[in-house]
Amino acid sequence: METATPQPKDASRTRERILGAARREFARAGFARATVRAIATAAQVSPNLITRYFGGKDGLFVAATEVHLALDRMFDGPRHSLGRRMAHGIVDRWTGMEGEDPLLVLLRAAGERGEAAEALATFLDRESLEPLRRQLLGYGMTEEEALARARAIDAFILGISARLRVLRDDLGDSAALEHWIAGTIQRLVDAP
C-alpha cells in the first residue's frame, strides 16, 4: 500500500488566501460585522492561522487594506486628456477588483474606525492628492491653483467613490460612467 506524500505547506499562498477572503468579507460586512471565523471559513483555514499570521482581526485589517496606486501611468500625458486617463483608471479599478479592492475596504471602514479614517486621509494625501498636484504644476499652474484643483478633483473622486461603491449603488453602464467622470475631471482641470 502506497502512502501519499504530504504536500509542503505554502505559508505565502495561505497568507494571500486569507488576505483575499478578508478583503471580500471586510468589503461586504464592514470591519465591525466581519468575523475572524467567517474569514477563516472563506479562506479554508483555521482561525488560529489568522492570529498566527496577523495577530488577530486588527492586524488582518491593516494588512488587507494596504493600498498603493500607480498613478504615474494615469497622469503621464497631455493636459487635455487628463480627465479621460483618470476616469479610465478609476472605472477600470472599480470594475476589475470588485470586493477585493483594499481601497474599497478602507473606504467602507472609515466610518466605523477612527484609525481607518486616518489611514484613508493619509493614503489619499500621499497617493492621490500630492501626485496630482505635481502633475498640475507640470502643466504650468501656480502652486495655489494646482493645489486647489487637485483638492477639487480628489474630493469629487472620493464623493463618487463613496456614492457608487461604499453605498453599494449599481455602477450602471461603465462606459457612460467613465465618460461622465472624464468630462467632470477635465472641467475641474481646465475651468478658468
TrEMBL record:
Q: Which UniProt keywords apply?
A: DNA-binding
Q: Does the keyword Nucleus apply?
A: no
Q: Which domain of life is it from?
A: Bacteria
Indicate the residues that the entry says bind DNA: 35-54
Q: Does the keyword Cell membrane apply?
A: no
For this UniProt entry, the molecular function terms from Gene Ontology, in alphabetical order, are: DNA-binding transcription factor activity; transcription cis-regulatory region binding
Coiled-coil region(s) at which residues?
none
Identify the residues that the record assigns to the HTH tetR-type domain, covering every copy. 12-72
Q: Name the InterPro entries for this protein.
A: Homeodomain-like_sf, HTH-type_TetR-like_transc_reg, HTH_TetR, Tet_transcr_reg_TetR-rel_C_sf, TetR_C_16
The UniProt entry, under Pfam families, shows:
TetR_C_16 (PF17920), TetR_N (PF00440)
Protein name per UniProt: TetR family transcriptional regulator
